[in-house]
Amino acid sequence: MRHGNKVNHLGRKTGHRKAMLQNMACSLIEHKRITTTIAKAKSLRVFVEPLLTKSKTDSTHSRRVVFSYLQSKEAVTELFREVAPKIANREGGYTRIIRTGYRLGDNAEMCMIEIVDFNELYNNNESKKTTRRSRRGGKASEGVAATTAEVVEETPAAEVVEETPVAEVVEEAPAAESTEEADTATEEEKTEE
């Protein structure tokens, strides 16, 4: 029975397993994406996500704690300089596992584990901005119609008289140059009446 045995041992002794997870975490931080088996990726996620959370606070203590897990100065500097600012506003779920199929040799299920904010294909949050629309649009549209009616009523007659000569000047312009301007001028005269 496996009561309380939550750790996947991955067929390795403790020292070998820790070294393998250290190396995989360093590779993930440096390359932002690695290919491995599903079981290793799930174990790596449990190993590396607390380190990514720790990197959000850049202090000497957090750098030393992360270094004690990774044992690589290059990976620690990469984590705190490049990765941490990108994941700063994310609450959790820093990694993504994408299944890629089965390995030819032993038919092991393979996957790609990556840091979420570094994949530009999946990050289309800027283009997805949508607005919520209310079903009760009648009151809002009535308010808009009322304000436009007030604006029309407030326009003095002197302004209307000033606009009419401008429309006449446009009509006197040669018709060959711009027929569109003449059309807009006639439309303006109709709306003024």
How would you describe this protein?
- The chain has 193 residues and is mainly α.
- It folds into 2 domains: 14-118, 50s Ribosomal Protein L17, Chain: A, CATH 3.90.1030; 146-192, no CATH class.
- It is built from 7 helices and 3 strands; from the N terminus they run H-E-H-H-H-E-E-H-H-H.
- It has a 3-stranded antiparallel sheet.
- Helix 3 packs across helix 4 (73-86) and helix 6 runs antiparallel to helix 7 (179-192).
- It is elongated, with a radius of gyration of 33 Å.
- Mean pLDDT is 81; it is low at 158-164.
CATH-derived topology of the largest domain: 50s Ribosomal Protein L17, Chain: A
Overall CATH architecture of the largest domain: Alpha-Beta Complex
Uncertain segments are 158-164
Task: Give the tally of β-strands.
Answer: 3
Q: Give me the number of helical elements.
A: 7
User: What is the CATH homologous superfamily assignment of the largest domain?
Assistant: Ribosomal protein L17
The total number of structural domains is 2
What global shape is seen? elongated
The largest beta-sheet arranges its strands as 1-3-2
- Provide the β-strand percentage band: 5-15%
Assembly state (oligomeric): single chain
Provide the CATH top-level class of the largest domain.
Alpha Beta
Mean of all residue-level pLDDT scores: 81
Overall helicity: 55-70%
The arrangement of helices and strands along the chain is: HEHHHEEHHH
What's the N-to-C terminus distance? 90 Å
- The chain-level structural class is mainly alpha
